[in-house]
Amino acid sequence: MKDTNKKSGIFKRMRTRIIAILGALGVAAFGGGHALLNNGSNNVQDNKTKIESTNTGKTSEGTFKEGLKFDTTIVDKILVEYNANLPEEEKITEDDLGIILQEEVGNGHVIKDVAEDGEVSYIENYYKTAKDLEEGQEFMEDNAISNMEIYTLVDNSKENTLAGVIEIGDEYHEIEVQSIEKNGKEYLKDDETYVGIPENVKTKDVYKNFENYYNKRLNKLENQKYAENVKEKTDDELEY
């Protein structure tokens, strides 16, 4: 009887610890093994530029989401087109396809290019200075930079850019990402493999797809982090 009570006490402590872990991760636990997400909006991030890739290990605000659906059709198409530009032995998988979100961009990085016919396009180049600008080009003004977001698909294995989309106010445009720098890593455009946005696709739809892909990858990392935390804490309890 003494052993039975001891085992019962161990499992009660394990259950209490697991529920505490779930609460810390923004999950409400219920009987029968079900879990319901809260909105998890407790922390404010100071760094406005975020990068997600399979080797960052970062999570966002501690939320845990499972079984969510993300429409990333356009991203999938870009990946297929990118691989078509690569030799067979260099083709990548989705695990190599990272995405960078910039919510605030430093001055002198985003270029507005107005062609002779009045067509406007956008370029991001981390290294260009005012003397490098061509006719019809100018850096975006401060007030515009503070009101924009840029998503950039990147090949983490080769550190190349694949495609970019920019939101300025309520407008969406393709942006040619020639160079971008984050956490000491440089991602550069390779003219031979760069894909850009597929033809006959609305830029607003591209933006939404990129946003979905960003959330999908972030969600994957959150789930991995959650599983690792639960396993670690459960293993600690089993040592008693």
Our Rg estimate from Cα atoms comes to 23 Å
Major β-sheet profile: 9 strands, mixed
Q: What is the element string, with H for helices and E for strands?
A: HEEEHEEEEHEEEEH
Distance between the termini: 18 Å
Q: Strand share of the residues?
A: 25-35%
Q: Please, what is the average pLDDT?
A: 76
Structural class, from helix and strand content? alpha+beta
Q: What is the number of strand segments?
A: 11
Tally of DSSP helical segments: 4
Tell me the helix content: 25-40%
Large-scale geometry: globular
Low-confidence stretches: 4-49, 53-63
Structure description:
Helix content is 31%, strand content 27%. It is an alpha+beta fold. The strands form two sheets. Strands 3, 4, 5, 6, 7, 8, 9, 10 and 11 form a nine-stranded mixed sheet that branches. Helix 1 (2-24) packs antiparallel against helix 4. The longest helix has 36 residues, at 203-238. The model is unreliable at 4-49 and 53-63 (pLDDT under 50).
